Amino acid sequence: AAGVIQSPRHLIKEKRETATLKCYPIPRHDTVYWYQQGPGQDPQFLISFYEKMQSDKGSIPDRFSAQQFSDYHSELNMSSLELGDSALYFCASSSSGREETQYFGPGTRLLVL
Amino acid sequence: QQQVKQSPQSLIVQKGGISIINCAYENTAFDYFPWYQQFPGKGPALLIAIRPDVSEKKEGRFTISFNKSAKQFSLHIMDSQPGDSATYFCAARDNAGNMLTFGGGTRLMVKP
After folding, report:
1. How big is chain A by its Cα radius of gyration, in Å?
2. DSSP assignments along A49-78, one per residue
3. Residues within 8 A of B (CB atoms), A 51-110 only
4. Amino acid B20: pLDDT
5. C-alpha distances out from residue A44 to A17, A27, A69, B6, B105, Å
6. Cβ contacts of residue B110 below 8 Å, gap of 6+?
7. Of A14, A87, B37, B39, which residue is least crowded by CB atoms under 10 Å?
8. Smallest CA–CA separation between B33 and chain A, in Å?
9. Which residues of B make CB contacts under 8 Å with A?
10. DSSP code at position A86
11. pLDDT value at position A68?
12. By the 8 A CB rule, do B80 and B19 touch?
């Protein structure tokens, strides 16, 4: 079965640089979620989109923005990167309706030097 | 402030034993409680989930017990195997949105 695809899988950036993470949801899933997981920590919800509209917003810094496109893929744009942004970034997807399970992708490991 | 509290942080169990992980919550608006398993460097994978109108759910070796009045739920892994060694997260979703709030995680090690 097709899973959530994230790219790139690994990313190394310098402080103050910009990064773009991409997420391709499971086919026919219309809702995308972004989570950030620091070392040894639990995933923290950042933001979600349903049918290309922002649906929920969590602890996402103002330096970050995200959007969902017409093909339902999503991009997380991170600017003015800080050392503390180094983490695993997960995308999850689900189909419409509140009853559906969130399926997580393999994550993008971001290292800010 | 952790909205979902998970314990223990780490757990060592002998092969064939029972692994028990507990979670507690305060937000009565939570209405869906999944458990995720995560291996190092991988994304969380759904194990099993429960809703508050059910007190117990079993899938294979995995069982969730849910106590609505106490606002607690737990994961039992029967006949634990070395391949079960991973980090387990409980989570909760409230009825106002779709985002998951995770517990702090339990690192399980099953010794052969």
Report:
1. 13
2. EETTEEEEE-S--TTEEEEE-TTS-EEEEE
3. 55-56, 58, 90, 92, 94, 98, 101-107, 109
4. 98
5. 23, 24, 23, 15, 12
6. B12, B13, B14, B15, B17, B19, B80, B81, B82, B83, B84, B85
7. A14
8. 10
9. 32, 34, 36, 41-46, 49, 89, 95, 97-105
10. -
11. 96
12. yes
How many C-beta neighbours within 10 Å does residue A10 have?
10
Q: Does A25 touch chain B (CB under 8 A)?
A: no
Q: How many residues does chain A have?
A: 113
Q: How confident is the model at residue B101 (pLDDT cuts 50, 70, 90)?
A: very high
Reading the block at residue B108, the tokens are 């399980």
Among candidate residues B75, B101, B102, B66, the one with its CA nearest the CA of residue B11: B75
pLDDT higher than 70, residue A98: no
Phi-psi region of B52 (alpha: psi -120 to 50; beta: other; left: phi over 0): alpha
| Short-list B97, B100, B88, CA closest to B11 | B88
Please count the CA atoms within 13 angstroms of the CA of A64 that sit on its side-chain side: 20
The answer to whether B16 and B77 have CB atoms below 8 angstroms apart is no
The rounded Cα B58 to chain-centroid distance in angstroms is 13
Helix and strand counts by DSSP (H, E) for chain B: 0, 11
Taken in order A108, B77, B11, A46, is the CA torsion positive or negative? positive
Q: How far from B56 is each of A10, B50, B64, CA to CA, in Å?
A: 40, 8, 6
